Amino acid sequence: MPARGNGRTLLVTGGAGFIGGNFVLQTVADGGAVVNLDKLTYAGNPDTLRSLQGDPRHVFVHGDIGDRALVARLLAEHRPDAIVNFAAESHVDRSIDGPAAFIETNVVGTLALLECARDWWKSLEGAARETFRFLHVSTDEVYGSLGDTGRFTEVTPYAPNSPYSASKASSDHLVRAFHHTYGLPVLTTNCSNNYGPYQFPEKLIPLIIARALAGEALPVYGDGRNVRDWLYVLDHCSAIRRVLEAGRVGETWNVGGNAERENLHVVRTICRLLDERKPLPDGRAHETLIEFVRDRPGHDRRYAIDSSKLQRELGWQPAESFETGIARTVDWYLGNQAWVKRVLDGSYRLERIGQA
Description:
By secondary structure, this protein is an alpha/beta fold. The chain contains twelve helices and twelve strands. The longest helix is centred in the N-terminal third of the chain and has 24 residues, at 100-123.
């Protein structure tokens, strides 16, 4: 059992992934204790947690959220104050190439985790039962695509357009149903596009950084005008912790970075930062490496999150602007190339996938 430290003990699923790993590191640094359950699929990387080796506040368990016996044992053994569910297959392109794995983890796995959480919660008494929470981490992609104006709110109808977003929408509905049917004290967060340290290099920002450093072509889907609201991962983690601390049970909270940018703008910004920090040997600007490639199927044109509820009711604000966050991100990758090299173990070679 992890030493409880100064805060609560959390069962975190998917805590070796990008957002989950940052959340675990932040939680332990602030005195909390974490039981970290991760299946270690392609994007789960225990190297992210290397700094926690030997720390009594962190217990890592290699396993699947769909393993009911394992989850029930962890709950009984460690008696966490809350479950934070990051565990998910989480890449749109991979869901186009192989949707079945997304249904298995994001829908079937979430159902198993919810059933275990419900049974555990029902066994609790007094303050432990009163304060227990199940926080489900989801995405703005469940809302579909926006036109040139407007932003997603917590009451925007669901309209998922990819196998990934459909699987996440399904899991969101299961979480809601377990609250309304069984009374399970749930919280749901829907976030915009995350970026920052420890992100698997198939996602746009780390992919562009890695390819630019190698002097390779920088692939941009379609015309590059697709818009995303970019959220620095540590801001996302602080929002989750704030919702866990004070969010009203049964409600949804949107988390955004107030940083809408076209994909092409993001790529050009990275190029300019690398021109300053790591110029190409031949003196060319990194922007000359940009190459437009065939768009992926069902590519949503624009996402934008309205996180005013979270800001108004819980007092959360992102600490980073896009400009400060992307500079911190580029600097992190430049300073952690050993981590990147260990991630690229031969199964992934900086390619765009999902163009089936």
